[in-house]
Design a protein that fits this description.
The complex is a heterodimer of chains A (337) and B (217).
Chain A: H1 3-11, H2 27-32, H3 37-42, H4 44-58, E1 62-64, H5 71-76, H6 101-104, H7 115-126, E2 134-140, H8 142-150, H9 152-161, H10 164-187, E3 192-196, H11 205-225, E4 229-234, H12 242-247, E5 252-255, H13 261-267, E6 274-279, H14 281-286, H15 290-301, E7 308-312, H16 322-335
Helix pairs in contact in A: 4-7, 8-9, 8-10, 10-11, 15-16
Chain B: H1 4-11, H2 15-27, H3 32-52, H4 58-81, E1 89-94, H5 102-112, E2 117-120, H6 127-136, E3 141-145, H7 154-164, E4 172-176, H8 182-188, E5 192-193, H9 197-216
Parallel strand pairs in B: 1-2, 1-3, 3-4, 4-5
Helix pairs in contact in B: 1-2, 1-3, 2-3, 2-4, 3-4, 4-5, 5-9, 6-7
The chains are: A alpha/beta (337), B alpha/beta (217).
Bound molecules: cobalamin.
Chain lengths: 337, 217
């Protein structure tokens, strides 16, 4: 089987030849390709070339146009700094007053001549490989995007004490834009849209229900409506909201290493949700040995009988030894399903 | 009224109520240091413990801290007047290359909740700036936060910079953040590591007491 058949098999409840490998590579990919991270996040050709080479070499089954969280915020007008070898960030939040959000944030065409468009170009460019690979898109979840625009500390304060309607007004804007961006990516040829909603791991289950869940579900539904699939990815400890993550209807639920993978598996029982995860990217991939990697990849996979995709809990760290990432593929090939 | 009412409202993050209650306590003649300790700081302590136990999450701590700040502003003139001094001075920042600041902010807030004066120098802070601030602001403690494995090594640079500047025997250096461990702290020569904000504040307060006692003898 090639990567596309393998992933399709798992998503459709059939047996693949081996468990797919969905490791997220960004910094690692740029470094392997000998490019600065700035080039990687600002030129789709660099991103595509680096990612294709890494996927071929390490047996990663999805080619993803993921790079950093600031593409959407920039489209809304946030000033974004791009360090040569750091993650792009916004030194001052665009929205300094929650109640100004509806006036300040205008919806925009993702083909905006900026880095939103650059992501769409990446997806178009990756179509040359779609015979073999699945192609991944990416959007910030509505909650994470609100944090990017308002500043995460301020927005987390807002949701605890400001007017609920004003909070929803902001989330509604970021959600609509996410849907617009996500559906454009599906039309450009993305099979699976990753929805990154990192900040939603920092709030209580009750707040998640009110401020994160409805918008995650809306994005999932919108992607489904245009024929795409979704992977909900939340960095951090989401143990208390696993049921809600599954309830969004996302085809894939991707959990970070702090989550008990058994609990994630059980939360998905009786549904078609595929679980993805979750060995520790730092302690295992970066600091571990090939033997330890093999052990942990197997320990995760052993919990499942189908419905599972292998990955570290989050991004592969930049300085991960090559032999450790090779060990992931070896372990998966060795065990089959 | 009872001062406990202040701490309960503070725990619930009700800034306006806290402000009003502090004023009421002043009007009823409670001494400033009791309002501070039994009202504001007690409330902040309680929320820190509940956060450590995963009973409340980041937003709840942020609004409690905001309520504490508003209450403290009402109290400040009285505290200065009655000569109540800060228990110590701390400078805190997230190290160079790292932009994560939620944890650092919580640590700063909990330290203020222990009656310490905290100078927050933000994120992406180069080692020299920790040292300069500690000297200029006469801090007893330097706190470094790092959330990335790639940036935690900068904390070792801060320790060395303190040695080179000749202030190592005068300041305690505390380190923390998710990837940091006690073993790592020992390895780079830091004085303390704690896993969460509440214990970080307790440790800092203990250091300040220790250093004051030493000065006294
Ligand atoms: C929110 C978040 C972000 C936000 C940060 C916003 C902000 N203003 O802080 C954004 C989106 C910007 C971000 C960016 C990145 N992130 Co990030 N992020 C997180 C996340 C989800 C939460 C961190 C957090 O705030 N935790 C809550 C606080 C309260 O916990 P804490 O910081 O650990 O603090 C507590 C204790 O550690 C302690 N403490 C903290 N500081 C100190 C200091 C002292 C002195 C003491 C004693 C104690 C102490 O007390 C605190 C309270 O109890 C974590 C995942 C996770 N849940 O850990 C990833 C995580 C930290 N990020 C990670 C990564 C890789 C990145 C990026 C490189 C990703 C990328 N490619 O885009 C960039 C790097 C940007 C940069 N240059 O810094 C990784 C780090 C892996 C590693 N160990 O190296 C994590 C663990 C995710 C993962 N599993 O891979 N991130």
């Amino acid at each position: 089987m090639h990567a596309r058949e393998r992933v399709e098999a798992v998503l459709n409840g059939r047996k693949p030849d081996r468990i797919p490998n969905f490791n997220i590579v960004m910094f690692f990919s740029a470094k392997q390709g000998g490019r600065s991270f700035r080039d990687y996040v600002s030129d789709y050709r660099v991103l595509c070339d680096c990612d294709f080479a890494v996927s071929e070499r390490y047996g990663i089954d999805m080619l993803s146009a993921i790079s950093d969280p600031m593409r959407e915020a920039e489209g809304f007008g946030a000033r974004v700094r791009m360090p040569e070898n750091g993650v792009p960030y916004s030194p001052v939040a665009l929205i300094d007053d929650l109640y100004d959000a509806p006036d300040k944030l205008k919806p925009y065409d993702p083909y905006n001549g900026k880095r939103s468009e650059d992501r769409l170009r990446a997806i178009e460019h990756l179509q040359q490989y779609r015979g073999e690979y699945v192609i991944g898109g990416w959007v910030e979840g509505a909650f994470a995007e609100a944090c990017d625009l308002r500043g995460i500390n301020d927005f987390l304060t807002d949701i605890a004490c400001e007017d609920e309607d004003a909070i929803h007004a902001l989330l509604d804007i970021t959600c609509r834009q996410a849907i617009r961006f996500a559906t454009a990516q599906v039309r450009a040829g993305a099979d699976i849209i990753g929805i990154g909603d990192a900040a939603s791991s920092l709030i209580s289950p009750a707040m998640y229900r009110t401020f994160a869940f409805p918008y995650q579900k809306a994005i999932v539904d919108a992607v489904h409506a245009v024929g795409g699939r979704t992977k909900l990815h939340i960095c951090g400890n989401t143990s208390k909201v696993l049921d809600q993550m599954v309830e969004t209807g996302s085809d894939i639920v991707d959990v970070d290493w702090m989550v008990d993978l058994r609990a994630a598996r059980d939360a998905a029982k009786g549904r078609h949700t595929v679980i993805c995860g979750n060995y520790d990217p730092v302690a295992i991939l970066l600091q571990g040995t090939p033997e330890l990697v093999r052990e942990r990849v197997n320990a995760c996979a052993d919990l499942f009988d189908g419905g599972y995709i292998s990955s570290a809990g989050c991004e592969v760290p930049m300085d991960t030894p090559e032999e450790n990432l090779t060990a992931v593929l070896r372990a998966l090939e060795e065990r089959g399903v | 009224m009872e001062l406990k009412e202040i701490s309960l409202q503070l725990e619930a993050g009700r800034a306006k109520e806290v402000k009003a209650l502090v004023q009421q306590a002043i009007d009823e003649g409670f001494p400033a240091d009791r309002i501070l300790n039994e009202g504001l700081l007690a409330g902040m302590n309680a929320i820190g413990v509940r956060f450590r136990n995963n009973e409340v999450f980041v937003p709840e701590v942020l609004i409690a801290a905001r309520a504490m700040k508003m209450g403290a502003n009402v109290l400040k003139p009285l505290l200065t007047e009655s000569g109540v001094q800060a228990a110590g001075r701390v400078c805190i920042g997230t190290v160079m290359g790292d932009l994560h600041d939620i944890g650092k902010n919580l640590v700063a807030m909990m330290m203020e909740g222990k009656g310490l004066e905290v100078i927050d120098i933000g994120t992406d802070v180069p080692p020299e700036q920790f040292i300069e601030t500690a000297i200029e602001e006469d801090c007893q403690i330097i706190c470094c936060s790092a959330l990335l494995t790639t940036t935690m090594n900068v904390m070792g640079d801060v320790v060395r910079a303190a040695e080179n500047a000749g202030i190592r025997d005068r300041v305690k250096i505390m380190v923390g953040g998710a990837p940091v461990t006690a073993a790592f702290a020992a390895q780079i020569g830091a004085d303390a590591y704690t896993p969460d904000a509440a214990s970080a504040a307790e440790q800092a307060a203990a250091f300040c007491r220790e250093m004051k006692e030493k000065q006294a003898v």
